[in-house]
Amino acid sequence: xxxxxxxxxxxxxxxxxxxxxxxxxxLEDAASRGYYAILHLSRALLLKHxxxxxxxxxxxxxxxxxxxxxxxxxxxLVRAIAxxxxxxxxxxxxxxxxxxxxxxxxxxxxxxxxxxxxxx
Length: 120
What we know:
Layout: H1 3-23, H2 27-48, H3 57-66, H4 68-71, H5 75-93, H6 101-118
Helix pairs in contact: 1-2, 2-5, 2-6, 3-5, 5-6
């Protein structure tokens, strides 16, 4: 199994947890798992295109932005990933519930779009 495929598998597991947590109304936890599903798909996409994986989350977004044309990503998708990273931080560290069902819908859309880009 290729390294990128390991990230795809990890993304699928995180997305499954995202779905379960969302159905249970645990929106902040679902957003966190959804973000990590997207993170692993982002890593898979970079690896599939011969790009190194950055060490930090912020560096990952920067690499995706710089490589977006090579990766076949639209600007709006990379911006959406950055927004989802912010959602995850609010959900993980905030004390006031701030994640909505619409936020989870957007996370799911981005996950599915990235999954298609990875070709799985």
